[in-house]
Amino acid sequence: MKIYFATGNSGKVENGRNILSDCSVEQLDVEMFESQSGSIQEIALSKVGQAVEKSDVEDDVFVIADDSGLFVDNLNGFPGPLSSPFDSMVGKERLLDLLDAGADAEFRAAIALHIPDGEDQVFTGNVEGEIVRPRGDGGFGYDPLFLPKENDETWGQDPEFKEKISHRKEALIKLKQFL
Ligand code: ITT
């Protein structure tokens, strides 16, 4: 089965290929407007809808899109759905100016699936951890700042650990079971 992963982020595609190993996962790099919704589920659905509309993929293929965010407890969940604009406009390291290192946070992912002639579905996952000063240069995005609860190294230092437990993995496993 072929699945198009609509994203500009090749790290997400790599995560997708690892979990959806029975499928052929291809990156679909189309421009998607990120609506300023408070919900990553809604944003993921909007992204997948735009991807299907704007691309010229065959009518009978599955397309997925992911919206993820880092939700910091002490900041009422900020940057959450705004993680992407926060990073591009301010820089992810500036998050540490707003809180003490060691602050509890959660990574959440929502993956929307477009089903040809069916109703779009959303699958979610989350993982708890802490925000720390950046460590390591593996992974992507906020990985060097995220220390998962179950490890003493950040995702930037130990990207292989992220292969075992992550918000995206949880969502992708739900998607795989659904398919
Ligand atoms: P697309 O919208 O094209 O899929 P994006 O990277 O902008 O790519 P998001 O809007 O979902 O994706 O990402 C929000 C921000 O969170 C962005 O800065 C990402 O780099 C970061 N991010 C998303 N998933 C992540 C992960 O698994 N680990 C670290 N950072 C992540």
Provide an overview of this structure.
It is a single chain. The protein has 179 residues and is α/β, with parallel strands linked by helices. It is built from five helices and six strands. Strands 2-1-3-4-5-6 form a six-stranded mixed sheet, with helices on both faces. α1 links the parallel β1 and β2. The longest helix has 15 residues. The protein is globular. The model has no long low-confidence stretch (mean pLDDT 95). Bound molecules: inosine 5'-triphosphate. Inosine 5'-triphosphate binds next to β3 and α3.
Topology record:
Blueprint: E1 2-6, H1 10-19, E2 24-28, H2 40-54, E3 62-72, H3 83-89, E4 103-114, E5 121-131, E6 146-148, H4 159-164, H5 167-178
Parallel strand pairs: 1-2, 1-3
Antiparallel strand pairs: 3-4, 4-5, 5-6
Helix pairs in contact: 1-5
The structure holds inosine 5'-triphosphate.
Concise description?
The protein is α/β, with parallel strands linked by helices. 28% of the residues lie in helices and 26% in strands. It is built from 5 helices and 6 strands.
